[in-house]
Amino acid sequence: MSLKKFNLRDLIADAADLLRQAGIEDSRREARFLAAWALQIDLTALLTRDVMSEDAAKRFQQAVDRRRMREPMALITGRTGFWTLDLAVSPATLVPRGDSETLIEALLEARPERQSRLRILDLGTGTGCLLLAALAEYPNAFGVGVDLSADAAVLASRNAAGNGLRERSAFLCGHWADALQGRFDVVLSNPPYIETDVISSLMPEVRIFEPASALDGGTDGLDAYRLLIGALGRLLTDDGLAIFELGQGQDEDVARLALDMELRVRGVRKDLGGIGRALLIERTAGPAVEFK
Questions:
Q1: Residue ranges of the Release factor glutamine methyltransferase N-terminal domain (predicted)?
Q2: Of the candidates 62, 79, 150, 173, which lies 20 to 30 Å from 211 by C-alpha distance?
Q3: What's the CATH number for 8-69?
Q4: pTM for this structure?
């Protein structure tokens, strides 16, 4: 793409048209967001600008070209928001999504005492978004995040520092909880849960640009849950709580895995779209209870 004009309104209009042709919904909004990013201003300040410098226009052009190829916006800008956090992102991890905030909402409702000295474990931590969001809400808690990717563990550690949470967190490279000793009050995880044969049909932003290891849940999408639930007996304290993110329609299958291990299913919390997104499991055996 060649953007020869430097009139900001024209640049945004041209970019929006190119993004629309690439199949991107709300292309005008995305073009404005990228223009603001290129200018290093917010969207409100964009309203007061009429022109873009040559350097900013080049930066804008490159960003639009990347977005036309369906690269996620967060990977282009290198950052995204999650809960109350500002996080760096990279191709080593999934881009945090708003649906995952359902796990934090569920945790806050299930453990309302914010001053609790919780020990929190986040398995498959990625950017560290779940663990860091939990630590931000529980100022006396300490957490450990584990990821198979060394690059992801380094990124999560950097995000902890950037959000003032370095002293209360540690990030390790490992295969789930294989190398861990001790028990935790809370275990969080957003594991890979997409069926292997579905991955090829995902939107390009996910299929092409996000790590397959963080997506592929095996033939039925449940491989990671089998491993995680099998480890809860040794990972959770007596009154410990695990919260797992779910894919659409997986709540009953994953709940059954927990019940088969004689764990107690506290319930499922739905996301804003009405999908059962967060499954709550307790170490104490017993009947499932209703949870919104």
A1: 10-78
A2: 62
A3: 1.10.8
A4: 0.91
